[in-house]
Structures are given as structure tokens and as C-alpha cells.
From TrEMBL:
One of its GO terms (biological process) is fructose metabolic process. PANTHER family: HEXOKINASE FAMILY MEMBER, PFKB FAMILY CARBOHYDRATE KINASE. Keywords: Kinase, Transferase. The lineage of its organism: Eukaryota, Viridiplantae, Streptophyta, Embryophyta, Tracheophyta. This is Carbohydrate kinase PfkB domain-containing protein.
């Protein structure tokens, strides 16, 4: 595991000639469109123990919550006042409908979501053990997200994006791998900024070597922006988001709104948190 993470770290690169000023430069006027972030990948149902700090086997019960790394990002962006869309696949089942409705309720464009009548929506049981390590158990044999095809991609939606955000889970199996690569190629040709979350989940890969090769296969396609001028501001904002997120159970239910974050951020002329 350590060697695999070190491989990613050694391969990390920063693209300094890509400016983020167009994406974060001040307030948008009423007539200007917000940058659209297209999130491509998995969306599933997380089952979180009702009691913290225990193993999955010892959990007395579970609370269901929408999740999936890319869906989390899409909802997080929308709740913070941004514009986001999600592209992926869920089962034609109750959980799939729940997830589609969740996106709509959070103002995330779900027009790129597809449904599979033969495979179920993916499930993940997740706990944070007493030693601080996360424990996962996935049900994907296969799950609907793994069966997204290139023909099901919403090309027009991808072309509208300013940022194309993606992970690595969709690289594990066909036909989703081919769909992922096609979407990535389309986004790049459309001029989207490519944002990559490796999101290593070794349990889902055939082996550590397969994970390394799969994740690294598209590593050099990504654009990574570094805006040192706004680093302190970004860290303060991210810290506030994190502080609020750990007060709730479940990935998506715990994501804060922009208003909630602003309430605990330091005021403009103070180093202490503003009154909530």
C-alpha cells in the first residue's frame, strides 16, 4: 500500500501555466453563467453504522445515505452555490430513483444519469473504526455504474462543461472503462479543465499492481491548478467545510451549504470566527 501511494506522490505534477483566474475571479454578474463542473463516475448508497467507532460486524444497525466520490463533489459544489452536473449510471430500482431525486433536490443537473434494468444500484458499507481507519464492504457484482457504455454518454452536456471532474473507479471494468476514456477525450477536445481524483480503493481492483497501472494510465491527462494567491482563503474555507461535515452521518447528507460555511468563517477584519 505504501509503495502504491508513493508511486502516485512521485508522479504528481503541477501545471503552473494554467490560470484559475477565469474560474475563481470574483463575483459573477446576474447575466454571466457560473462555470459548470461535470462530475463523471460512481454514485451509490452508503450504509453507515448507527454507532461510531466499531467494526461493520459489530454494528447494531445502519443508516443509509447517498454517496459516491464524484456525486459527493457534484452536490458539494451545488450546495456551495456553484453549478454542477453528474454523469453516471444507477439501477432501475428504488435506490436509483432515490439518488436521481437527491441530485435534483440539490440543484445538480441529472440529465446525464442513465438507468440499468438488469443491474442494481451499488451499495457500500462504511465505518470509521476506533483506531481511526475506515473499513469498507462493497456490493458490486456488477453494479449499474460499472455498465455505463460509450453510447450512453451525453456528449452535449460534456461539451458545456468548464471543468470535467472524474475518478478512477470507473477504470476498473468494461464497459465503463471505455465510456470513461471516451468522456475524457471528449471533455479535453471541448476545452474543459480536467480534474482527477485517483480515489484509491484497493478492494475493488484485482491487485495493487492493477490499481497502480489503471490509475496511472490517465494521470498525465489531468490539469492541476495551483493558485498561491488564494491559498490561505482556500484553506480556511476547506477547514470550515470539514468541520461542518463531521457533525453529520453519511457523505452527501453531511455536506454543508455556502451559508452554513460563511457563518463559521472568520470575519473579513478579524482572526476569530464570526458569530453563528
Amino acid at each position: 500500500m505504501k509503495k502504491l501511494y508513493q508511486s502516485f506522490k512521485d508522479s504528481f505534477r503541477k501545471v503552473s501555466d494554467t490560470s484559475s483566474s477565469d474560474l475563481s475571479g470574483g463575483e459573477l454578474s446576474g447575466e454571466e453563467k457560473k462555470p459548470l463542473v461535470i462530475c463523471f463516475g460512481e454514485m451509490l448508497i452508503d450504509f453507515v453504522p448507527t454507532v461510531a467507532g466499531i467494526s461493520l460486524a459489530d454494528a447494531p444497525g445502519f443508516k443509509k445515505a447517498p454517496g459516491g466520490a464524484l456525486a459527493n463533489v457534484a452536490v458539494g459544489i451545488a450546495r456551495l452555490g456553484g453549478s454542477a452536473a453528474f454523469i453516471g449510471k444507477v439501477g432501475e430500482d428504488e435506490f436509483g430513483s432515490m439518488l436521481a431525486n437527491m441530485l435534483a433536490e440539490n440543484n445538480v443537473d441529472n440529465s446525464g444519469l442513465r438507468y440499468d434494468s438488469k443491474a442494481r444500484t451499488g451499495l457500500a458499507f462504511i465505518t470509521l473504526r476506533e483506531d481511526g481507519e475506515r473499513e469498507f464492504m462493497f456490493y458490486r457484482h456488477p453494479s449499474a455504474d460499472m455498465l455505463l457504455t460509450e453510447a450512453e454518454l451525453d456528449a452535449d452536456l460534456i461539451k458545456k462543461g468548464t471543468i470535467f471532474h472524474y475518478g478512477s473507479i470507473s477504470l476498473i471494468e468494461e464497459p465503463c472503462r471505455s465510456a470513461h476514456l471516451a468522456a475524457l477525450k471528449l471533455a479535453k477536445s471541448a476545452g474543459c479543465l480536467l480534474s482527477y481524483d485517483p480515489n484509491l480503493r484497493l478492494l475493488l481492483w484485482p491487485s495493487a499492481d492493477a490499481a497502480r497501472k489503471g490509475i496511472m494510465s490517465i494521470w498525465n491527462e489531468a490539469d492541476i491548478i495551483k493558485d498561491e494567491g488564494k491559498l490561505r482563503e482556500a484553506l480556511l474555507f476547506a477547514n470550515a467545510c470539514g468541520a461542518l461535515t463531521v457533525t453529520e452521518k453519511g457523505a452527501i447528507p453531511a455536506l454543508p451549504t455556502a451559508e452554513a460555511v460563511r457563518k463559521i468563517l472568520p470575519s473579513e477584519n478579524s482572526t476569530t470566527p464570526a458569530a453563528g
